[in-house]
Amino acid sequence: MTPQILLDGLRHSFFKINMIKVLIIDECHHARGKHPYASIMREFYHRHLEAGASNLPRIFGMTASPINSKGANSADSYWQKIHELETIMNSKVYTCESESVLAQFVPFSTPKFKFYQHMEIPNVLYAHLVEELTVLKVKHEFSLDKLDLEASAAESTRKKLSKIHSALIHCLHELGVWLALKAAECFSCYESEHLMWGKLDVFGEKIIRSYSVDAFRAIETCMPSGLDWTIANDVKGSAAAGFLTTKVLCLIESLFEYRVLKDIRCIIFVERVITAVVLQSLFSELLPRYSNWKTNYIAGNNSGLQNQTRKKQNEIVEEFRKGMVNIIVATSILEEGLDVQSCNLIIRFDPSPTICSFIQSRGRARMQNSDYLLMLKSGDCSTHFRLKNYLTSGDVMRKESLRHASNPCSPLSKGLDDEEFYQVASTGACMTLSSSVGLMYFYCSRLPADGYFKPIPRCVIDKQMGLCTLLLPKSCPIQTVCVQGNIKNLKKIACFEACKKLHQIGALTDNLVPDIVFEENDVEEFEKEPYNDDQPIFFPPELVNKGSLDSMTKYYCYLMELKQNFDYEVPVHNIMLLVRNQFDMDEKSVNIELEVDRGTLTVNMKYIGLIRLNSDQVILCRRFQLAVFQVLMDRKAEKLAEVLCDHTLGNNSEIDYLLLPSNYVGQSPLIDWLSVTSVTFSYEKAWKNHVNCNAGMIQTKSGLVCTCMVQNSLVSTPHNGHAYIISGLLTNINANSLLRLSDGRLMTYKEYYEQRRIR
What we know:
37% of the residues lie in helices and 17% in strands. The protein is of the alpha/beta class.
């Protein structure tokens, strides 16, 4: 089983550590920090060992390198790291005297340094594209600021936008213009099988895609045009032009040196997911001209960049094993666990970050007389020195392990296992500060959900006060948990306290699992059910028009009094619901709590009387309602004029209800006609009844208007079609006033919009 499954089983006390006789831990160098291996040993093995238990399992760990770091400066430093692993594992390292002993049984690849002369892509081209991409980033960040998203959603989108921008700059500098173009193409299709960016607000997704598409177009303008041109036509010429870097050229030439091999199996290790994706695109276009080699890529599925499934990865490995795929471009995910006896070439496109990575990736070449190419920039002395140390590290680790072989294991130092701990006396199930976060999310995942809503906990942290408020879904028996403490652990502390309370009230069983009879498989199947557009549509009878539209139409009016339970500069406005048939209400009023982005909204609905509207008033109200709904759903006003000119607005014979702003103050129902009639606003009519107020003028696309006409109004910006509310006017600035950008730079508003090509 996986270490996480074993750890979960022990924490929930489904079985005990003393039920295991021998615990075999593969790749045991991971037993550090918060890794499940380390948690199993600290939380269960060492706790029982200190308590005097004698029936604990024997530990058998396996690794090619007991050190999982960048190395050490001396033999003593190597031993210190080995000693830490021996302590947590409560085991001694056993090894051979030298690599030559192992070589009698396991083939070792031959390390070879491959130096390349780094050449920058033409400075004019590079500077131009960097400037273009930066301007696009600023443009889309500005669009994000105008969306008025929830703070967390806006921050998430901003981080992902910066991540894409950084990735494109990296590709441009390290791989060349053509591969940067391929990266932008992948990002513009980020919901495909190649790449994804996690769950974003729908408007955040549009910004991410829009930036990627614009970046692709900007880079594409710098590439040769014409149907006959491809990157494979002249690889060296492409490198000279900056379309490929000399590093990529070195990789291509290194591969071509092995064309004499009839059956090549090569793994190219890279540091970044996007590098793996675009190099695979390059080889798929280039290699068919020179050989019948097939290429694919494998990248970790927890990178946040792509969603390549484990099943897909296993299929690619099997194709590699059978010779259907000759070259795999991979991230560190393939450094461990892959055993393909016919693999005869490993290329480190990017240097190994640690000793363990170096040894593990070298070990993937299992065939006799295989090679391990280490690509290195000429003159990079520090990396060259580090890699040479990696080559000798195996002998140093063996000598130090054998030199201390007779020393007994040391007890686990105090402080390594003193994390706050909660244990159920009746079962032994336990929870730590760190594991409580996962348990909290696990509990929420078992609350009622569907394909459109997934209940999750939400943390609101006040860094200045050192406070954290954990907000839980409405279906959870506990709504909020407030804690105070170290800012770094606030979320953990809040989840820890919430889980304790859930157990105390019985929402978590004595095995610390949700007391909710809702199987995970059933949830997943229900969530995967496609939406059926052919389902019958149900309308409450009160909203159905049972009579004809007479000269005066009678409506029953229900006032919705809104009270916002949060601070915001724009106050809410009471709404009146007008229906043709009276509701059958048991109470005089109905109170409900609505969750919105910024907090909760209290709604009190009550009946306030009858109102009669003539046909023109009904059509005007419907136009207003349609305009509001259109803008709320699309946040654009592009098709608003077309929709409002629809002459069938008054002929809906099925559904008849109106949601309108109200000025009701305790007497008869009263519609806010000033707001409703604003839907008929036009530039021509605006000046007809205008009284000179000396409020100042503002230039619009339609012409000059008085600032009093746009105050508290809905406006649309022509360059993007977005709709905005004018909540206030800044009379002390103009086009030549200074605007401070997010990076601290200053420029005039005129310069800023000219850079973004908005006039």
